[in-house]
Each structure stands twice: as C-alpha cells, then as structure tokens.
C-alpha cells in the first residue's frame, strides 16, 4: 500500500496538510490500527483519569502532533488525525493511529507485542520531541468534527440561521420563547360582533 510505504518516513495525516506528511481523506484503511491519545501520556492525569504510562514517563500537557512525532521516533507507521479527541479530554485535539499489528494480527515488532509496551516506548520519546502545537479547537470545532456531541436543545448553526432568516417558516418571535395567538374560529368572531363573546378572567 502506497500510504503505508510513505508512513515510515513521513507519517500519514488525515484532514490537514503538514510538511513531510501525506494527506489522505479516507481513514478506512487505518481502522485496525491501534489508537493513542495525548491523554495517555499526561502527567497531570491519574491512572483512573486516563493516563496509561507511569508518572515518571509522562509529560506536562501533551498534544497530538507531539504524540505523532514520538510514535515515528519509536519506529512505527503513523496516521495522525488532528480533528479527533478523546471523549474524556475534548479540548486536547489529536488522535494517533499506530500500525502495531500486521494483516494477520501478528506484532510488527517482537519487542513491542502489545499496546501497553507500545505506550511505554512512545512515552520514552515524548519529552525529547519538539513539534509545533496545533491550534486549540473551539467547542464548535469539536461538535463539527464529531469528537463531541451537540449540546441538547441547541440546533446546528445552519439550522439556527434558517430559523432566524425571514420566511424560513417559523416567525422570529418563536426563537425568543413567544407564541403566536391562536386563530379565532368564524363562529367566535361572529359572536363577538353580536356582543355574545365571553371574557375569561
């Protein structure tokens, strides 16, 4: 696979361009690769809150691009997805997929047979990696990318624009919590004209 041949030297990046990396738009070919997140290497997190390596190997405020470079330094093929985030760490963007096993399910390297040892090997490289930090994602960026679900009761931006635009179907007053008065029946209207309408207090 051409993408895999290039991965060893420059890595593979989903979604955005970066010097030395190949950009691909379809991540299906990497679905069986092992996923790593910066959360796993965060010194500020406990093991119960998502850290996967010993505190002595963890680093302060790890980020996606740093992790992808560390995986390459450890000698593995990399797929970097800059718009993905861990569910427990929404605001740290970046997910790294690693080709830990071959197509037959055997470890690519005999000295790294599982995810736990992979994390340890990568952690040993994290502190020495100097990579530019990606822009911190906004809440809307995370919702748009699918990393975070939309907030309950908050319509998507496009739907909000449709609702607020003239002639979109619902009157603008509805957006402020107001309701339009109910239409009177013809019978009620005639009754009022004759003075038979009733006032309810």
Put the structure in a nutshell:
By secondary structure, the protein is of the alpha/beta class.
What does this protein look like?
The protein has 201 residues and is an alpha/beta fold. 27% of the residues lie in helices and 8% in strands. The protein is built from 6 helices and 5 strands, in the order αβββαββαααα. It has helices at residues 2-10, 64-73, 115-126, 139-145, 157-164, 186-193; strands at residues 12-14, 22-24, 34-36, 78-81, 95-98. Strands 2-1-4-5-3 form a 5-stranded mixed sheet. α2 crosses α3. The radius of gyration is 27 Å and the shape is globular. The chain starts with a helix and ends in an 8-residue tail after the last helix. Residues 1-10, 14-19, 167-180 and 197-201 have low confidence and may be disordered.
List the helices and strands and how they pair.
Layout: H1 2-10, E1 12-14, E2 22-24, E3 34-36, H2 64-73, E4 78-81, E5 95-98, H3 115-126, H4 139-145, H5 157-164, H6 186-193
Helix pairs in contact: 2-3
State the share of residues found in helices, binned by percent: 25-40%
Helix and strand content put the structural class at: alpha/beta
What is the CA-based Rg, rounded? 27 Å
Label the overall shape: globular
Helix-strand topology string: HEEEHEEHHHH
How many H/I helical runs?
Answer: 6
> In percent, how much strand structure appears in the residues?
5-15%
* Strand runs, count: 5
Determine the mean pLDDT. 74
Return residue spans where pLDDT drops below 50 for at least 5 consecutive residues. Answer: 1-10, 14-19, 167-180, 197-201
As an assembly, this protein is: single chain
- Strands of the widest sheet, in order across it, are 2-1-4-5-3
Largest sheet: 5 strands, mixed
């Amino acid at each position: 696979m051409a993408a895999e041949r290039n991965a060893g030297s420059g890595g593979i990046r989903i979604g955005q361009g970066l010097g030395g990396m190949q950009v691909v738009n379809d991540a299906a070919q990497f679905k069986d690769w092992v996923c790593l997140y910066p959360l796993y290497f965060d010194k500020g997190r406990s093991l119960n809150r998502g850290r996967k390596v010993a505190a002595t190997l963890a680093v302060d405020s790890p980020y996606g691009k740093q992790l992808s470079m560390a995986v390459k330094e450890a000698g593995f093929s990399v797929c970097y997805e800059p718009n993905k985030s861990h569910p427990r760490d929404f605001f740290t963007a970046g997910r790294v997929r690693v080709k830990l096993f071959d197509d037959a399910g055997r470890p690519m390297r005999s000295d790294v047979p599982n995810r736990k040892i992979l994390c340890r090997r990568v952690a040993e490289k994290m502190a020495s990696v100097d990579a530019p930090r990606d822009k911190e994602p906004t809440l809307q960026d995370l919702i748009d990318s699918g990393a975070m679900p939309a907030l309950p009761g908050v319509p998507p931006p496009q739907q909000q624009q449709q609702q607020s635009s003239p002639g979109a179907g619902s009157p603008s007053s509805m957006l402020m919590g107001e309701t339009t008065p109910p239409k009177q029946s013809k019978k009620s209207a005639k009754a009022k004209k004759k003075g038979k309408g009733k006032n309810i207090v």
